[in-house]
Design goal:
Blueprint: H1 7-13, H2 29-39, E1 51-56, H3 59-73, H4 84-90, H5 92-108, E2 114-121, H6 129-136, H7 140-152, E3 155-157, H8 167-174, E4 181-183, E5 187-191
Antiparallel strand pairs: 1-2, 2-4, 2-5, 3-5
Length: 214
Amino acid sequence: MTLALSSDQLLSTTRAVRHRLDLSRPVPRRLLEECVDLAVQAPSGRNRQRWHFVIVTDPEQRAALADVWRAGVTTPGASEPLPERDARRASVARMDRVYSGTAHLYAHLHEVPALVVPCVEGRTDHAPVLRQAGTWGSILPAAWSFMLAARARGLGTCWTTGNLVDERESARVLGIPYDDVMQAALIPVAYTLGTDFRPAPRISRDRVLHWDQF
């Protein structure tokens, strides 16, 4: 199923889906492959195309990866309190929904039909900003394109990073060569319960747009 969405609707309604992931409906391999085909049309630094997508659908592998993620999100210090300026932007009410959604994922991550781990060849540990920007800029656009392609097909996604707290263990579970390949996220993928997603409240344009200088 492909949703009839304009480009503006697609960009403004691709939400972080947690509570509304359909845990009972398998996601066809064909759809996930289509999303990867579109993802790798994203720009890549120097056209190196060092991206990889590890898609986990085997129940035992999902359970093992979910355990690494749960350990990560509960590691002391893994999630710092929001600075005051960020809390003001997010608002308490919406952050309550974020925390509730995280708790829901904590309980059900292993049940999500597909877990996608976007990766990129080359590590940026202690690298200068220029190298970091080039490396992350070669995987994040592709991962976002994957999420947009999923939304267009009636699938929900959510950017999570709990697997990165102990990235070595996550790499061990998935057979990723840690010294050569860096993980960027863990993205749950499932059909959504309903498709009526709307644009989210955001801070006003005049607070983020700068002309000629900051």
